Automatic annotation (TrEMBL):
<comment type="pathway">
    <text>Quinol/quinone metabolism; menaquinone biosynthesis.</text>
</comment>
<keyword id="KW-0067">ATP-binding</keyword>
<dbReference type="Pfam" id="PF00501">
    <property type="entry name" value="AMP-binding"/>
</dbReference>
<keyword id="KW-0436">Ligase</keyword>
<dbReference type="InterPro" id="IPR025110">
    <property type="entry name" value="AMP-bd_C"/>
</dbReference>
<comment type="similarity">
    <text>Belongs to the ATP-dependent AMP-binding enzyme family. MenE subfamily.</text>
</comment>
<dbReference type="InterPro" id="IPR010192">
    <property type="entry name" value="MenE"/>
</dbReference>
<comment type="pathway">
    <text>Quinol/quinone metabolism; 1,4-dihydroxy-2-naphthoate biosynthesis; 1,4-dihydroxy-2-naphthoate from chorismate: step 5/7.</text>
</comment>
<keyword id="KW-0474">Menaquinone biosynthesis</keyword>
<dbReference type="InterPro" id="IPR020845">
    <property type="entry name" value="AMP-binding_CS"/>
</dbReference>
<dbReference type="Pfam" id="PF13193">
    <property type="entry name" value="AMP-binding_C"/>
</dbReference>
<comment type="function">
    <text>Converts 2-succinylbenzoate (OSB) to 2-succinylbenzoyl-CoA (OSB-CoA).</text>
</comment>
<protein>
    <recommendedName>
        <fullName>2-succinylbenzoate--CoA ligase</fullName>
        <ecNumber>6.2.1.26</ecNumber>
    </recommendedName>
</protein>
<dbReference type="InterPro" id="IPR042099">
    <property type="entry name" value="ANL_N_sf"/>
</dbReference>
<feature type="domain" description="AMP-binding enzyme C-terminal">
    <location>
        <begin position="401"/>
        <end position="476"/>
    </location>
</feature>
<dbReference type="GO" id="GO:0008756">
    <property type="term" value="F:o-succinylbenzoate-CoA ligase activity"/>
</dbReference>
<dbReference type="InterPro" id="IPR045851">
    <property type="entry name" value="AMP-bd_C_sf"/>
</dbReference>
């Protein structure tokens, strides 16, 4: 079998007293303590009836019990089902049922939602365990000391920006190769400390738990995103790498004001979709090392990343496929020409083989559903989601391109664009703006600016000034909900 030593056992053996995770105000847990707590929980769960192959759902925010539960379940050989804390009880019930969950571990903060979800399933109330009352046990109960890279380890649901969410199955090997591929690109330093501010139930956050035990690298875990706290951690507490999405970087820059990051800070890994060019230029002016990256739940986090040597030369690019991965862009089944936009296809050992109950992927490459193009050197530029594309009078409009231009307008803090039905053109682009406090934003001002940056058919025909954009737990704009967010807001028509 394709086995490796259990990664937490290995780190506990190599560096037992070293800090594994920092959390809370001034708390930390070492690798030996993380191992001990995880093994005790594994034995307690076994006594409670959890067995190898069971699907155990976890509904939790970023707290130290989350990784303890994850590692405990790996010692048992059970599958971790990660649930989004923003879901309604009805949505949770759907995923619990769809995933065939047999047990349900719930953060105390979400107990009410957990119980409501249980009531909508066939699960018994005693299958729900709260994190404040996790069962711990000692004794000579056999636990896994080896991990099979071919075994399914986690199930994470797609964000559901289009249609019903599906459970992506990740093997231990998917997580292993994702971590190794990232290290081959970004390198490793003995001084590295990666800050986890993305939700741990999301693949971007979960991947840091894997890097933590595969690299033996400490992570600093935050309960939630807080720009002031993160900037303080980078500037004064040794954080060298942070994973963020666009809106997080915008808020970090705003909070940073005229301050700067120390030279020891080496990477702001920026993913979560296309990134506005003005934001990248602003970060570059502040000497912030932003490395764009591209990935998705199906690729166990990043699969394409811009290497440090190309970060400035190829600003705006997500880079090239990581060492064990390959990619291609297809248009109507053929390989796209340089700069020709098509659908991104990827393959590699970090790519999931399929979705639970949906069968395994038969194609050699995964069709990502994302639109992008390669330049003449093979660098990937992610344009948008294929399903978010607006078709206006037969012309393709990618919302992310328009949003990037809108963010260059003085006074615009955030921007979202989607299509609005139109009798003449089929669809026309509509803009949704979150403005800065004292800013004066009008459709006329928007049009005047856009005329110098966009083709006429790409210029928004209607403008809504709203208080906030609808986002999912990954902080991605949910464009299909933009019109639902405008009730009581100001609209301006062309």
């Amino acid at each position: 079998m394709n086995e490796i030593p259990h990664w937490l056992e290995k780190q506990s053996d190599l560096q037992p007293t070293n800090v594994a995770i920092e959390y809370g105000e001034h708390q930390s847990i070492s690798y030996s303590e993380l191992r001990e707590e995880s093994r005790k929980l594994a034995k307690g769960l076994i006594k409670k009836g959890v067995k190898q192959g069971d699907h155990v759902a976890i509904l939790s925010g970023n707290r130290v019990e989350f990784p303890i539960c994850v590692h405990a379940l790996s010692y048992i050989g059970a599958v971790v089902v990660c649930l989004n804390t923003r879901l309604s009880p009805e949505e949770l019930a759907f995923q619990l049922t769809d995933a065939d969950a047999t047990s349900f571990i719930v953060d105390t903060e979400f107990v009410e939602e957990g119980h409501k979800a249980i009531e909508l399933t066939t699960l018994n109330e005693d299958t729900l365990v709260t994190m404040d009352h996790l069962p711990k046990a000692d004794g000579s109960i056999s636990l896994n000391d080896q991990l099979s890279l071919d075994d399914v380890f986690t199930m994470m649901y797609t964000s559901g920006t289009t249609g019903k969410p599906k459970a992506v199955m990740h093997t231990y090997g998917n997580h292993w190769f994702s971590a190794v591929a990232s290290a081959l690109n970004l390198g490793l330093s003995a001084r590295d400390k990666w800050l986890a501010c993305l939700p741990l139930f999301h693949v971007g956050g979960f991947s840091l738990l894997m890097k933590n035990v595969i690299y033996g690298m400490p992570i600093r875990m935050l309960a939630r995103f807080d720009a002031e706290v993160i900037n303080n951690e980078i500037r004064h507490h040794g954080v060298t790498i942070v994973s963020v999405v666009t809106v997080m970087l915008q808020r970090l820059l705003k909070d940073l004001q005229e301050n700067s990051y120390p030279r020891s800070f080496r990477c702001m890994l920026l993913g979560g979709g296309p990134v506005p060019k003005p934001l990248l230029h602003k970060a570059n002016e502040r000497n912030i090392p932003v490395f764009q990256t591209y990935g998705m739940t199906e690729t166990s986090s990043q699969i394409v990343t811009l290497s440090p040597s190309d970060a400035l030369r190829k600003i705006g690019s997500a880079g090239k496929a990581l060492a064990p991965a390959t990619l291609k862009v297809l248009v109507g089944g053929r390989i796209a020409e340089p700069y020709e936009t098509g659908e991104i296809h990827v393959r590699g050992p970090m790519v999931s083989s399929g979705y639970y109950k949906k069968g395994h992927r038969e194609a050699e490459y995964l069709a990502t559903g994302d639109a992008g193009y390669l330049d003449e050197e093979g660098f990937l530029y992610v344009v948008d989601r294929v399903n978010d594309m607006i078709i206006s009078g037969g012309e393709n409009i990618y919302p992310a391109e328009v949003e990037s231009v809108l963010l260059g307008i003085e006074g615009v803090e955030e921007a979202g664009v989607t299509g609005m039905p139109d009798d003449e053109w089929g669809e026309v682009p509509t803009a949704f703006i979150v403005k800065k406090e004292e800013a004066d934003i009008s459709l006329e001002k928007l049009n005047e600016y856009c005329r110098g940056h966009l083709a006429p058919y790409k210029i928004p025909k209607q403008l809504f000034v709203i208080s906030q954009l609808p986002r999912n737990a990954s902080n991605k704009i949910v464009r299909r909900k933009l019109f639902k967010s405008v009730e009581g807001e100001h609209g301006y028509e062309h």
